[in-house]
Structures are given as C-alpha cells and as structure tokens.
Amino acid sequence: MLHGEAIWRELSSKAMASDSTGQRGTSGRFESVFYLKPFSDKGVYGWLYRVYPEPWQVVYESVRPGKDGNAEVTYVPVAVLEKRPTEVVDMLVKASQNR
User: How far is residue 83's CA from residue 21's CA, in Å, rounded to a whole number?
Assistant: First the structure.
C-alpha cells in the first residue's frame, strides 16, 4: 500500500499530460479532468467547459425575463474546439450579436 509522497511519485511517473500542442505525451504537466471557467465581460456571460478527453466547448449564457418575473436562462453552445481557445470573450460577443 502506497502513502503520501510514494503515491505522488507513482502517479507522477505514470501521468500522461498534454503539451502545448494539445498532444498527449510526458511533458510533466497534469491536465484537469474537468474544467469549467465562467466569463463575464463586455456585457456577455458564458463558460469555457471541458471534460477530458472531450473537446473544449464555449457556451453562451442567455438571460431573459421570464413570464413569471424570474430570469429565464438558456445555454447555447458557441464552439466545440480541439485546442483550448484564447478568445472566449470575442466568441461570446459574436454569439450575443447573433441572437
């Protein structure tokens, strides 16, 4: 049975991580299994989402007044990408202009 530092060494030696090109390899980096980051800028709201090994997703969050006075929120996929996007806010702004 492994404990503490021994577990860390065992996991580190077997870990497969993505390098900067998005390819699997032994770059020494760990990649998150689940990634969810909110974005709110320029009057738009959305998320960058990923569950490894699936592709990255940019999701636009549309908020409108509902019939009963409560907010009605819908989530609209904007892009599905193999590499992590860098211009998420720009993608969300374009999505908001198309609605």
Answer: 8
Reported pTM: 0.64
Q: Give, for all 99 residues of the chain, the pLDDT tens digit.
A: 444 455 555 545 544 444 444 555 545 677 788 999 999 888 889 999 999 889 999 999 988 888 888 989 889 999 999 999 999 999 999 988 887
Tokens standing for 26? 């032994």
Q: In this structure, which amino acid lies at residue 88?
A: V
3-state secondary structure of 61: strand
Tell me how far apart the terminal alpha carbons of the chain are, to the nearest angstrom.
Answer: 56
Neighbouring C-alpha atoms within 13 Å toward the C-beta of 2: 8
What tokens does 72 get? 């009605």
